[in-house]
Structure formats: structure tokens, C-alpha cells
Design brief:
By secondary structure, this protein is α+β, with helices and mostly antiparallel strands. It has helices at about 10-20, 50-60, 70-75, 80-85, 95-100, 105-115, 130-135, 160-170, 235-255, 285-290, 300-305, 380-390, 405-410, and strands spanning about 1-5, 25-30, 40-45, 65-70, 90, 120-125, 140-145, 155, 175-180, 185-195, 195-200, 205, 210, 215-220, 225, 260-270, 270-280, 320-330, 350-355, 355-360, 360-365, 370-375. The strands form six sheets. The chain has a five-stranded parallel sheet, with helices on both faces. It has a five-stranded antiparallel sheet with strand order 12-15-18-22-19. Strands 6-9-7-8 form a four-stranded antiparallel sheet, sandwiched between helices. It is globular, with a radius of gyration of 20 Å.
Length: about 425
Amino acid sequence: MRVLVIGSGAREHALLLALSKDPSVSTLLVAPGNAGTAKLAEQHPVDVASGDAVTELARKLEADLVIIGPEVPLVLGVADSLREAGIATFGPSAAAARIEGSKAFAKDVMAAAGVRTAHSEIVDTPAKLDEALDRFGPNWVVKDDGLAAGKGVVVTTDRLAARDHAAELLETGHPVLLESFLDGPEVSLFCLVDGETVVPLLPAQDHKRVGDGDTGPNTGGMGAYTPLPWLPAEVVAQIVREVVEPVAAEMVKRSCPFSGLLYAGLAIGAQGPAVVEFNCRFGDPETQAVLALLESPLGEALHATATGTLSSLAPLQWKDGAAVTVVLAAENYPGRPRTGDVIIGADADGVLHAGTALKDGAVVSAGGRVLSVVGVGSDLSAARADAYFKIEPIRLPGSHFRTDIGLAAVEGRISL
């Protein structure tokens, strides 16, 4: 099977690495890829947001399966273009990708499906902002209603900071979603979904804030770990039964069935799981940790999802132990990152590339989140030790990373 992966981040590097271990995958292709993926797959330039360009490339390369990594091409309908050309595609249609592309759409689906989520209100004009803010607090959650690469969210007890963020979004023409605050630890659960068939992967936890102790602004994700020692298996089953399956069924009912990876971000509070957000693709950096523990052939599972045969897939098998992803970010991230610096140690084992490029034969930084370093071990403590052992020799001027990924779970500071 010739497999083409669309995207250029550490998520796509992790997908390629897992696919390379699948005996049914004969050839790996990636577009556009990065400095790290070049060692695993043939690299090809492409405009990932263009359905015509991606479809033309897939035809030229005779791809048997196309896997779309990022959310932007999915929301723009690239998967639709590929399917219209008769190419098996892992990733939802534009209509189904609205579950991530429009938070208002996601809220409507959840309401119809009877899924618990935060109370919310859309504000589309500055004139309504102050009155709406008065209906929330003392914790304000302010979100961009569209795609924001994980950085369009502000959670604060400072009303002025909430107002400033909302006003900035409105000024740029983006509707604002105000939400009530959901308490409890957060969980990321990836599920392969084919219509009403749902197959969960391992639950993970992302660390969104840039600094240790969950300080500083939100980012696209500074690290993740899996599995979650504090989350009982019955709660995962409850999430599938009460959240993912009803949403999948509701989307079938609306004639926009989901096919691909449905990512449920949840808070597990005193009243049980409640949805924070849905994404329409593999999340980054959770994917890097989750796939490090997958034993089943990934290509087989994604092909079954893409071709409507997920219900006949054998149960997924997982390695014992744990995995931790630590993100190495460029100077000034999540602001405008410093780029173009040579990276030392980027080719070591367990290092996945995101914002990297090749320049004069050297690997250089080319984005905000530059590398994901993945550690594995017999338990979470051992996996953390492995990840930080691997990240220590890497050198990038001005770079930074969190030192506490998974630490609260190791120390028993997370409980339900």
C-alpha cells in the first residue's frame, strides 16, 4: 500500500514513523514534510489547502491511501476532493469537519445528541460584549469561534483580560464564543470513527500553557503523556458511550457522517465528563505519545476507517508502559518565534520534527514548536525520565520547554 501523508508537523512525523512499522505499507510519501520526515518518506511540495493540488499529487504518486494531518485542509474540503477522485482518504468531509471549524456547530450537535458541555454564548458584535461578559465569571473562557491553532483561547479570572481578548477577536472579524468554566482534570481521547462505528485509542493529557505549573499563555501544546494512571477504564468507556457515540450518530442523522479521527477534549468534573472541544484530526502533541505505544498496524486501521470497514477491524493492541512527549519551542513562542538557527541533536532517537527545515545541509528552526521529544518507559515516571534524558543534549539558541510534563500525575496530584 502506497500511503501519502499531508502535513509538515511532528504529528505527521509520528504518523509516518508508526506507518513505517506496518508491513502492509510498501511506500511512504509526505507532502510537504519537514527536515525529519525526509528520512522516512519521499517528500513532495504541495499547497495543503488546495483540494485540486493535493488530489493531482495523490494521482501522480498513485497513492492507495491519503492521510490528512492538519485541520485547515480538512475544514476547506480537501478530503472531499480526494474522495470525488476515488482515492481512499483518512479525514472527514468539510461538512463533518465543522465539528472543529465552527464551535457553534459543535455546540448545536452536542445539544441535539444530549452531550454534556459548557454553557455558551456567541458574541458577534462589540456592542453586545459587556452585557454578555456579565453573564459569565468569575472564571471567563473566551474562544475564537473558528480555527486558531490551539492559541485562540483565554481562560482567566481577570474580566479585563477576557474583554481585551474578545474585543481583539471581534476587531479582526472573528465571532467570539463565551463559555462557562468546566472544572476537573482534562482528557484528550482520540477515536477512529466510521459513521456510527467508534474505536477509541489510549487517553492522553495535553499541557497547553507555555510555562511550568500551567503558567503563561495558551499554546498549541507543550507536551503530553499517556496513559492516564488516574483515569479508570470505565470512565473511558463512559466517554465513548455518552459522548463520542451519540455525536457520531447525530452527525449521521444530519447527513454529514464523520470518517476519520474524532478528538474529544473533556473535563472530568464531579458530575462526570463534559466536552471542552472537538477536533477533526489527530491532536498534536498527544499523537506523538499515543502512537509510540501502538502495537497494531496503523496503516491497516486508518485504511479500514477510510474505506468504511472499521467495524471489522481487529481490536487494537497496545504496548505496556507509558509514553511522554516534551515539546522544544523556539525563542518567543507562542509569540512570533525566532527561526533560522541551527539545531544540534535533532536527529537523535525519539526526536520528531515539527518546525524544521534543511539549509546548507544543516537542520534549522522554521517554526514555533520545533521538535517533539518522545520518551517511553515501564511507567510514567520512567517515560518522563527517558524524554528529559533525550531532550537534554539538544541545542537551539533561545529555545525552551516545560520540565513538568506528566509530573502532577506521577506525584499523585491528579484525581477524580
